[in-house]
């Protein structure tokens, strides 16, 4: 520290003394959280999102208004919800899931958007580059679709090589095409089941015995996440060993999950929203990818299914629910 | 009369002295405050300068310690990875079954989350088996990696640290390879360096300090702000990174310790190298926080300085007051003494030099008072002496005036009055000359003429004598002795003295004086006056006439009346009676001579005694009365 700095500090100290901070009453910024699913089953995620905001120093209803818009599983409602929201000029739009993200991108090119994305955001056209998104969007990618093969591997290890395994896909999810491509790339026989409504889910499960399906892979989709209790109940009912993307399914009674941590992703989305409220540009914030993948195993469910979990699977389990 | 008082109009200690004193007061205070200000300020600045230097050095050493701690942790992280990986190369590929390998690898992946993918390569450099967190396991691909650095260097050095690369543009990765001895082959791991972030973010540096990691090429590997890492930020634009790569000392000189960080904010930076990797870990702390204690100290110093300055001002005021008030008292006291108030004493009880000074002033005033009183006395004495001398001088001057006037008068009168007898003498002498020339000499005529001449000569002599006596009395102002004397006695003496003349003219004298009449006066002079009056009475009373003298006391005066039986006084006589050289219309009955001076002398003598003289006449032929009134001797018993 040089001498003039000291003098500067001295002077500054003298001048700074009587300074009185005068807070301008600014309007509390609005953050709109849009998801294709329903509120009740998304509590852990919205809580994680709020935690992320808190990490950046934002407190809901005090320094930020947070409004949730739920499509209740009807992805076709998302564009309308989004345009309603855009009309209210929110400071940030938080879009949960691929469909919501694409709807948001379609609705505005100026309002910053923070998304969570199950697949490669470049692949579905959300951003041009992961580390330099460039436009008004950034967010978290779970790269869930990429893990379908990995989950299939798990299923094979659990059920044996020859078993017929089905994949449940939401046809409204834009990653569906890529998911099917991925499955094809594995070179293995996979039955593809589609569902975009609760009835569809019921129907999908009902169709399984008929198609000889012995195991199920549920792809990452907010609608499925929001209907996890239905899915888990159906899986139990039909005694179908199912592997999910997220640990939330396993915690609720699902057999097994392999993937990144969903709540981590939503927390990071909240952090992004906070950074943007602080003045950061989405274009400067690289899309974050998960580095941590966890295998969660519910041995209770396995027992009820009469499954013997092999040593190789068990050793990889990061969390075992018993 | 005060010869030492300086007449000045300005009142003592009024309008202008307070201004002067206030000047002194302010000077004292200003001087005191200036001295304290300079002392405190100099001290403060020096102290601050030293504490700034010390604190900066201290902060940087602390930073350096943080950086070394961080480097040790990162080293430990990498070393652990290495040892975990090394563990997989303890046994040759052939020894274990595939299932055993998969189990081991799965366990390794679970235990070491940073490893995303691990491949087992046999001693020939062929990949036997690969497991990943993302992709399904690959068995027996037999891909030849024997020519790749990760294999060759691992075999050569037991361990290989690959360069940092970015997966999918944004994920920092590093290849870590470990080789066992002999034919155990090589384990090659792809390490997601985001996990180092956990290590780096756990490094606590103050409240807002942070650490970050830069690889040997200057690429950012780990930073609490993940975005910077994911964007593959070039850290070489930072001066501290450049300096560190150029081999700067870990603790930079003071002036290089404050640099800009990625966000362009001022930070205090230090770094430490991380083990064998050639990485550098930087520890940065925002200057505001780093120097917050310093700033607090400066604030404290400023407040202390201000407080000390206020105290100094108050002390200055107090001391100046203590100085100035006694000085003012001294000054006022001295001014009063200076204006002649020698009784003024200055009362100071300051128990210091000022009190001593006041005492000296008082001593001086005392001495002045004494010498002044002395002088006053001398002046009084001299003044009364002078007054007396003046009085005498003016009396003398008056007398001289009188003498001079008398001289003039006498010269005039003499020229006129002495001419008559001289003319008689001259005429008779001519006649006598003629008679002497006649033959026969007529004796009787000659005798007559001679007689006439002699008489005229006698008259001249009388006149001159009388003149001289009068002149003497008048001019020399013969002093009157004042003694108590009995006027009746005196009259008797005078009558006895004139007895021959009375007898010669057969005149009768009746003196009626019942009692002793005491007056204060000069015996000889009063005798002369009464004698003169009696002589006149004898002179102008006919032979055989009667003279009456009455003495009587009336009130506070004694009256002496001499009543002759002469022709009396005409009105013309009355007016000229007491002048000099005045002749009355009556002629002395016995042919006596008269100079005309007698009555004026009498009048003078009487007046000198505080009395008065008057003349009266009962009418022509019925004689005249001369009355002398003299004051009774003050303590004489009153008759009336």
Plain-language structure description:
The complex is a heterodimer of chains A (322) and B (640). With 322 residues, chain A is an alpha/beta fold. Chain A is built from 13 helices and twelve strands. The longest helix of chain A has 16 residues, at 262-277. Chain B has a six-stranded antiparallel beta sheet, sandwiched between helices. In chain B, strands 8-7-11-10-9 form a five-stranded antiparallel beta sheet. In chain B, strands 13-15-16-18-17 form a five-stranded mixed beta sheet. The longest helix of chain B has 73 residues, at 16-88. Mean pLDDT of chain B is 81; it is low at 1-18. The A-B interface holds A 1-3, 5-6, 9-10, 13-14, 17, 129-132, 143, 146-147, 149-150, 152-153, 186, 284-289, 291-293, 295, 311-312, 315-318 and B 45, 48-49, 52-53, 56, 99, 102-103, 106-107, 109-110, 113, 116, 132-137, 166, 168-171, 192, 194-195, 226-227, 230-232, 254-255, 258, 291, 294-295, 298-299, 302.
């Amino acid at each position: 520290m040089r001498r003039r700095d000291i003098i500067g500090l001295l002077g500054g100290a003298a001048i700074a003394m009587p300074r009185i901070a005068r807070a301008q009453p600014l309007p509390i910024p609005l953050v709109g959280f849009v998801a294709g699913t329903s509120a009740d089953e998304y509590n852990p995620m919205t809580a994680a999102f709020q935690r992320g905001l808190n990490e950046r120093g934002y407190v809901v209803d005090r320094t930020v208004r947070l409004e949730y818009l739920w499509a209740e599983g009807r992805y076709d409602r998302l564009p309308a919800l989004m345009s309603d929201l855009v009309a209210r000029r929110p400071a940030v739009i938080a879009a949960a899931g691929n469909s919501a993200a694409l709807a948001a991108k379609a609705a505005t090119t100026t309002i910053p958007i923070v998304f969570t994305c199950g697949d490669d955001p470049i692949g579905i056209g959300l951003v041009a580059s992961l580390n330099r998104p460039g436009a008004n969007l950034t967010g978290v990618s779970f790269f869930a679709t990429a893990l379908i093969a990995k989950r299939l591997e798990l299923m094979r290890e659990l059920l044996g090589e020859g078993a017929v395994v089905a994949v449940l896909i939401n046809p409204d999810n834009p990653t569906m095409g890529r998911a099917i491509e991925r499955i094809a790339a594995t070179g293995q026989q996979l039955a593809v089941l589609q569902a975009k409504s609760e009835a569809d889910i019921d129907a999908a499960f009902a169709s399984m015995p008929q198609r000889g399906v012995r195991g199920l892979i549920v792809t990452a989709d907010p609608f499925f996440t929001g209907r996890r209790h239905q899915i888990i109940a159906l899986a139990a009912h039909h005694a179908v060993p199912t592997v999910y993307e997220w640990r939330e399914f396993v915690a609720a009674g699902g057999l097994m999950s392999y993937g990144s941590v969903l709540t981590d992703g939503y927390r990071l989305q909240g952090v992004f929203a906070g950074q943007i409220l602080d003045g950061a540009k989405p274009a400067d914030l690289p899309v974050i990818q998960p580095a941590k993948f966890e295998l969660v195993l519910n041995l209770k469910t396995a027992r009820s299914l009469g499954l013997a979990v092999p040593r190789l699977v068990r050793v990889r389990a990061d969390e075992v629910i018993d | 009369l005060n010869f030492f008082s300086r007449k000045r109009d300005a009142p003592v200690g009024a309008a202008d002295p307070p201004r002067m004193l206030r000047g002194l007061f302010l000077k004292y205070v200003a001087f005191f405050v200036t001295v304290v200000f300079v002392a405190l300020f100099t001290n403060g600045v020096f102290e601050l300068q030293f504490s700034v230097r010390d604190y900066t050095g201290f902060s940087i050493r602390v930073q350096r310690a943080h950086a070394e701690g961080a480097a040790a942790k990162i080293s430990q992280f990498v070393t652990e990875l290495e040892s975990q990986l090394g563990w997989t190369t303890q046994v040759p590929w052939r020894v274990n079954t595939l299932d055993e390998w998969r189990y081991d690898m799965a366990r390794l992946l679970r235990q070491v989350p940073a490893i995303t993918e691990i491949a087992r390569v046999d001693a020939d450099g062929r990949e036997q088996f690969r497991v990943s967190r993302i992709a399904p396991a690959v068995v027996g691909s037999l891909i030849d990696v024997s020519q790749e650095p990760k294999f060759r260097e691992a075999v050569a050095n037991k361990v290989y640290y690959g360069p940092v690369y970015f997966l999918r543009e944004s994920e920092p990765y590093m290849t870590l390879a470990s080789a066992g001895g002999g034919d155990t082959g090589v384990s090659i791991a792809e390490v997601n360096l985001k996990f180092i972030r956990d290590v780096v973010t756990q490094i606590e540096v103050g409240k807002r300090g942070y650490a970050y990691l830069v690889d040997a090429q200057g690429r950012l590997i780990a930073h609490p702000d993940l975005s910077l890492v994911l964007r593959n930020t070039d850290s070489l634009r930072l001066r501290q990174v450049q300096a560190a790569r150029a081999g700067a000392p870990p603790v930079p000189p003071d002036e290089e310790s404050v640099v800009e960080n990625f966000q362009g904010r001022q930070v205090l930076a230090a770094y430490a190298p991380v083990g064998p990797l050639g990485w550098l870990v930087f520890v940065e702390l925002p200057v505001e926080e780093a120097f917050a204690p310093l700033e607090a100290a400066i604030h404290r110093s400023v407040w202390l300085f201000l407080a000390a300055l206020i105290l100094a001002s108050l002390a200055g005021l107090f001391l100046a007051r203590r100085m100035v008030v006694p000085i003012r008292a001294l000054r006022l006291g001295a001014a009063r003494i200076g204006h002649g108030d020698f009784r003024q004493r200055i009362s100071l009880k300051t128990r210091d030099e000022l009190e001593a000074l006041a005492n000296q002033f008082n001593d001086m005033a005392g001495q002045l008072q004494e010498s002044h009183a002395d002088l006053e006395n001398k002046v009084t004495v001299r003044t009364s002496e002078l007054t007396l001398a003046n009085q005498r001088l003016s009396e003398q001057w008056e007398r001289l005036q009188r003498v001079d006037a008398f001289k003039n008068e006498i010269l005039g009168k003499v020229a006129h009055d002495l001419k008559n007898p001289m003319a008689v003498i001259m005429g008779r002498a001519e006649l006598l000359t003629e008679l002497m020339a006649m033959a026969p000499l007529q004796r009787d005529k000659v005798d007559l003429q001679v007689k006439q001449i002699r008489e005229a000569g006698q008259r001249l002599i009388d006149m001159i004598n009388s003149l001289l006596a009068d002149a003497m009395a008048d001019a020399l102002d013969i002093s009157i002795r004042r003694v108590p004397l009995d006027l009746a006695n005196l009259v008797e003496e005078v009558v006895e003295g004139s007895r021959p003349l009375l007898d010669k003219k057969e005149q009768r004298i009746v003196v009626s004086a019942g009692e002793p009449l005491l007056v204060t006066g000069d015996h000889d002079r009063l005798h002369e006056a009464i004698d003169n009056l009696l002589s006149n009475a004898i002179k102008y009373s006919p032979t055989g006439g009667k003279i009456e003298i009455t003495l009587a006391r009336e009130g506070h005066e004694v009256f002496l009346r001499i009543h002759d039986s002469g022709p009396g006084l005409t009105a013309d006589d009355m007016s000229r009676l007491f002048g000099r050289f005045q002749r009355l219309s009556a002629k002395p009955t016995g042919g006596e001579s008269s100079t005309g001076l007698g009555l004026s002398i009498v009048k003078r003598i009487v007046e000198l005694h505080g009395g008065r003289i008057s003349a009266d006449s009962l009418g022509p032929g019925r004689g005249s009365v001369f009355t002398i009134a003299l004051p009774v001797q003050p303590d004489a018993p009153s008759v009336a």
